[in-house]
Amino acid sequence: MYKIYNPGENEVRALDGINLSIEDGEFVAIVGHSGSGKSTFMNMLGCLDVPTSGEYYLDGVNVATLGDDELSDIRNKKIGFIFQGFNLIPSLNAVENVELPLIYRGMGKEERKRLAVEALTRVGLEKRLTHRPMQMSGGQQQRVAIARAIAARPPMILADEPTGNLDTKSGVDVMNILRELWREGRTIVLITHDNEIAASARRVVRIIDGKIVEDYINEAITKETV
Predict the structure, then answer these.
(1) Tally of structural domains, the chain
(2) Looking at the domain assignment, is residue 111 inside a domain?
(3) Does residue 148 form part of some domain?
(4) Which of 37, 81, 144, 217 gives 20 to 30 Å between its CA and that of 122?
């Protein structure tokens, strides 16, 4: 897979021949410094962008050939996103924020509410259901974002620097939730610049200058030790 900006004399190869397979149920950390290409790679994995050349198969479908509407449909049904900046709607409370992507899936009001409350309870926010983002700490806001990502039970969770804006304790709480989801069978792809955070994953893939330079299994991490 290649992603090239400004093709020609001043081109930037954000992804320069990435070749990677991720199996169902894996917990993979994509690690690299700023400018390494990991964010571009996350955009490809999350169907937020398409490669300049190459193929990306998700559940057997070459998504590199799909249009915007089809990509949107895949994102909505197969991938739960967790972002460093939370991306919550300030005017909506916790339940309403979690319900938002469920609306796009055409779910009825009662089912949306049930799944939202269930997901928020899962991340320990059952007493914060009607709180808006500004009434919550950063750690609580990120847990709302996790609840939003898992409410529809997508098979894959894509977490982009999920602990980047959090204090140490909140970061540990978030990683514990991700490990628990992995133990239950979800595929977790974690994007991070932090080697310590990456060490929490079962598999670590390191990217430098748009190329994979390291790909190994962290034998110390198993589902039994979670």
Answers:
(1) 1
(2) no
(3) no
(4) 217
pLDDT beyond 70 at 129: yes
Query: Residue 203: inside a domain, yes or no?
Result: yes
Q: What is the CATH number of the domain that holds 54?
A: 3.40.50.300
* Residue 141, domain member (yes or no): no
Give the domain extent around 45. 2-87+154-225
For 85-126, how does the pLDDT look when each residue is reduced to its tens digit (9 = 90+)?
888 999 999 999 999 989 888 889 999 999 999 999 989 999
Tell me how crowded residue 69 is: count the other CB atoms within 10 A of its CB: 8
